[in-house]
Amino acid sequence: MIKLNNFIRVCIAIVLILTILYLGSQVTFIFRPILSLITIATVPLMLSAFFYYLLRPLVNIMERKKMNRTLSILLIYLVFGLFFVGFILGVWPSLRDQFINLLNNAPDLFVALGKQLQNLEQSGILSQFFPSDTSPSSQITDYLNKGFSVMTNYLSGLFSVISNITVILFIFPIVLFYMLKDSGNFGRKLVSFTPKRFHKEAAKVVADIDRSLSSFIVGRVLINLALGVLMYFGFIIIGLPYALLLTVIAVIMNFVPFVGAILSAIPIVIIGLIESPSIGIWSLVIILVAQQIQDNLIAPYIFGKQLDIHPITTIILVLVGGDLAGIIGVLLIIPVYMIIKIVVVKIYDLFFRKKWEKA
Fold this sequence. Notes:
Layout: H1 2-26, H2 28-64, H3 69-104, H4 106-123, H5 136-161, H6 165-181, H7 185-192, H8 199-238, H9 243-253, H10 259-275, H11 277-303, H12 311-358
Helix pairs in contact: 2-3, 2-6, 4-5, 4-10, 5-10, 7-8, 8-9, 8-11, 8-12, 9-10, 10-11
């Protein structure tokens, strides 16, 4: 009888939740302004959290050196401002020239690509990898069109996210300043919302989440920078055109697990293939070698066992995140999964482990 009553309670709770969701879907005009506000604030908050975990160790070091925390943050802002000016004056002109040159030469590059594919087809190299009843060049063209379509959608989503640049530039530095200044207060506020008897466990959960996010973000940046250095020097050695531009694109897109690495490889291999088949092959070899060094040497050293996520789980999460919220979902899904996993494991340890192990 007790089990039946519990079952009825669960069913009633599910019905009530579904009813609330249905009623909410009928009055979307009430929630639309809230969703718009969340959409506008998402990118500045993401950037603030990203740079918070990058800069917090430096701020803490400066504070331990008896420097005022606010002054430390302002000094870091000044240094970053100088680096930004140096980037605009030193690196940006080269990037801009390569980008403009690539756009201007795009029609000629596609013509050259078509000729290279025809030459490879006539030489019989491509026929070894495709069925005899199909045209290898047309199949490769179809694959490239699909790849460019996916990459265009990815880039258009990325540009739509950062389109409201004025709001981002205004909100992001302010939010980041207060996050760095009040470091730790947010976690203590979260703990205070839990019942007193769970404060100790809640503090551990907050600390674990903070440690995991810090390791993930800082580690991801270090790994991508290392990947960029390896790829750039490799591209310079083989004489790949637009080496700096393609490396920057690869580093940025590599923040998206799996999908970003594949998409960034497409333009690199195409540009190499247009230059010559050997450069196209060598550019692919450099990408694969750099990825292997990243995955098997650099990533285990930086992450250790802290990022315990199976590759299949990562792929599923990226697909789900992209389907739910586009590029924002793809970027946020791994950190959100890490937070949920830590919370669920702690809840299981506190409330269910002993009961289920005794059963």
